[in-house]
């Protein structure tokens, strides 16, 4: 396979391979760090490559109750619980009606879910991976790569050349490694999230429910986070006029406080904007396959979920577990393990798309809205 070069250089530079790893993971977020931890614990030599060091507040704050069993399987539940994440006891939604309805987790077998300090979660996973023996390059990006008979050679921005038997793409929705091999993602919508972080000076807000509120041109959500903070997000399609207006922080706050019940909650507890809103991609999209020749994708790089589902971080952990188990089985000679992982990702995503379509169809109050029309009148292609 010819070298893929982000600088457009079609010739291979002859360099001495300085380091060898059984697995190199591109991306040090939740999925990548979890996979590094699991592989290193199984004595697989592993390198994590992060384009930038973790910094500040990360968007993505919710874990459903089923995550508790997964963290216990990782052996990290006690550490996780000591980091100050807040319990989430259910959901509250004004969806299909202006009146809020509540769904409690009280009958869930795994108890409550979680509202996360995402920075602490990712740091816990990355540091746990390093303690298990993983190596970690921060502020480092992949410059060139080419395939060899027994894996990949990767040329990095820090001047290092790495030989890897396997590469794991954990680079998020951009799926950089897959994309640079001309594997194209399929997107099912144009959803974006414009998300800001608020803070208050008191502890009176003890609301442990995730709150979702549909509006004419999209929907809003909010959740209480550790350290008296509250996240608020507006979700709509990025090409719609109001979404473009909402990229202005003042207009975003005007929409929040003048036209939503969530805004009333924020004013009740005197929340002040702490980190201005920023827009990120929140669409549903996936690779046609999560595996290739000596590479596989995990987390959002494999399949990205609508925030309405609260599945993003859960599937980051879940695909990290399933992919590492597949790699370990493959190393023992199980030729079915890697294709089975691809089937797992595909099947879960098919089920998710069906649930996504169902929940959006429940909102019928805005029949003339392009946002809602796209979700009730459009036939989608399955992955």
UniProtKB/TrEMBL annotation:
Residues 22-334 form the FAD-binding domain. Coiled coil: none annotated. Pfam families: FAD_binding_3. Gene3D superfamilies: 3.30.9.100, FAD/NAD(P)-binding domain (3.50.50.60). SUPFAM superfamilies: FAD/NAD(P)-binding domain. InterPro entries: FAD-bd, FAD/NAD-bd_sf, Flavin-dep_Halogenase_NPB. GO terms for molecular function: FAD binding. PANTHER family: FAD-BINDING PROTEIN (PTHR43747), SLR1998 PROTEIN (PTHR43747:SF1). Belongs to the flavin-dependent halogenase family. Bacterial tryptophan halogenase subfamily. This is FAD-binding domain-containing protein.
């Amino acid at each position: 396979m010819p070298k893929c070069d982000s600088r457009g250089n079609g010739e291979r530079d002859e360099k001495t391979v300085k380091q060898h790893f059984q697995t190199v993971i591109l991306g040090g977020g939740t999925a990548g760090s979890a996979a590094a931890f699991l592989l290193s614990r199984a004595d697989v030599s592993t390198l994590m490559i992060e384009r930038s060091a973790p910094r500040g507040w990360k968007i993505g704050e919710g874990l459903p109750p089923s995550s508790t069993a997964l963290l216990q399987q990782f052996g990290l539940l006690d550490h996780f619980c000591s980091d100050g994440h807040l319990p989430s006891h259910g959901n509250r939604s004004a969806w299909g009606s202006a009146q809020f309805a509540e769904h409690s987790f009280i009958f869930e077998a795994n108890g409550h879910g979680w509202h996360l300090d995402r920075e602490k979660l990712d740091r816990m996973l990355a540091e746990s991976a390093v303690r298990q023996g993983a190596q970690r390059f921060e502020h480092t990006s992949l410059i060139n790569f080419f395939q060899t008979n027994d894996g990949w050679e990767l040329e990095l921005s820090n001047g290092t050349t790495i030989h890897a038997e396997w590469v794991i793409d954990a680079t998020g929705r951009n799926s950089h490694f897959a994309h640079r091999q001309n594997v194209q993602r399929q997107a099912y919508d144009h959803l974006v999230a414009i998300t800001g972080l608020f803070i208050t000076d008191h502890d009176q807000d003890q609301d442990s429910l995730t709150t979702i509120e549909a509006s004419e041109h999209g929907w809003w959500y909010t959740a209480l986070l550790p350290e008296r903070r509250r996240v608020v997000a507006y979700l709509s399609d990025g090409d719609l006029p109001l979404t473009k207006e909402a990229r202005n922080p003042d207009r975003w706050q005007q929409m929040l406080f003048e036209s939503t019940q969530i805004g009333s909650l924020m004013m009740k507890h005197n929340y002040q904007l702490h980190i201005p809103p920023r827009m990120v991609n929140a669409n549903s999209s996936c690779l046609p396959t999560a595996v290739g020749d000596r590479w596989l994708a995990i987390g959002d790089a494999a399949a990205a979920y609508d925030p309405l589902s609260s599945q993003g971080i859960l599937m980051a952990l879940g695909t990290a577990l399933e992919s590492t188990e597949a790699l370990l089985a493959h190393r023992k000679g199980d030729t079915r393990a890697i294709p089975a992982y691809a089937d797992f990702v595909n099947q879960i995503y098919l089920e998710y798309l069906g649930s996504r379509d169902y929940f959006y169809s429940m909102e019928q109050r805005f029949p003339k809205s392009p946002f809602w029309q796209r979700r009730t009148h459009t036939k989608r292609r399955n992955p």
